[in-house]
Amino acid sequence: MVDEATRKTLSGIPLLKTKAGPKDDPKLWIQRLKEEYQALIKYVENNKVAGNDWFRLESNKEGTRWFGKCWHVQDMLKYEFDVEFDIPVTYPVTAPELALPELDGKTAKMYRGGKICLTDHFKPLWAKNVPKFGIAHAMALGLGPWLAVEIPEMIEKGTVVYQDTDKK
Questions:
Q1: What CATH number matches the domain at 4-161, 3.40.1080.10, 3.10.110.10, 3.30.450.90, 3.30.930.10?
Q2: Is 117 a catalytic residue?
Q3: If I label 76, which of 26, 55, 58, 160 is the partner at 20 to 30 A Cα–Cα?
């Protein structure tokens, strides 16, 4: 079941049509990447309008390695983290494994290398929506909810400590 806020967020992210991954026909993969970028741009625009801007992403030239920043604001402090992931060879059938490497080992809801745990909730939803879901959906339904739950708990426990990123 999806709550109303999640349903609204999802309705604002375009669904993808091309079922292609990095090992498929290069023309199809380029088409898929165009759809991915269009969906990401729309999702970021929607977030900015809603006052909920929380990540930046970019990819390598081939669109197979993604990296950027994500953040969580709590008590008027912005906690910022590197985010990275590779597009699986079997994409889009297989969802990307989103990682926050600097948080590796700080929570039980994470795998080696800082990959966040999305097994129970997100991966079944992804499987039902192949090839319609893409990177923007992984951010909205995977990383966003994970940050909202895990980061406040890590702050409370002292495993994540505020660092002024403006002075870096």
A1: 3.10.110.10
A2: yes
A3: 58
